[in-house]
Write a structure and sequence with these properties.
Blueprint: E1 2-3, H1 12-23, E2 30-35, H2 40-50, E3 56-59, H3 72-83, E4 89-94, H4 98-104, E5 112-114, H5 118-128, E6 132-136, H6 142-154, H7 161-170
Parallel strand pairs: 2-3, 2-4, 4-6, 5-6
Antiparallel strand pairs: 1-3
Helix pairs in contact: 3-4, 5-6
Bound molecules: D-ribose.
Length: 179
Amino acid sequence: MTFIWPPLHPWGEFVAPFYTLILFKRIKMKIGIASDHGGFELKRMLISRLSVMNHILVDFGNYQYDSGDDYPDYVIPLARSVANGEVERGIAVCGSGVGASIAANKIEGARAALITDHFAAHQGVEDDAMNIICLGGRITGVETAMELVLAFLNAKFSRGDRHIRRIRKADPAGTKLLD
Ligand code: RB5
């Protein structure tokens, strides 16, 4: 796991809290991000854009392009981290976004979805407490991806009784962070 918070300094992990104090900037959100080779380039661009927006980014890999790598090796650790609250939200990128979403949803408490439109990017959080957005690096360009990610990050779960009831029916053991 690599801690990336801006600026992209070789000692970023060590100096990031001091930058925060000095700049009096409120850290917005701790976000985990992961990809295989199919999502590697989009992940790299998302990290570069999100890291200057005052978010803390934790990269679960892969850390270099490897055409033989497997998305579960990065997405499952990300999903575990989201489910146990170590990071608040997750971004998982593979070639289509499908494999990432299937893998992430195997983890109790991870609520992941492949997102390609703006409405689903925020309504998935508001109604369904989606906590991992999955993107296809071979499908969604960086500008659209950023709009989807920002809609996802800015949305909040409504905490409506009917929504909690539905989420519990789908994942009874995985809703502890909703309480
Ligand atoms: C890898 O080539 C590709 O299959 C993977 O990134 C993803 O698209 C799976 O859903």
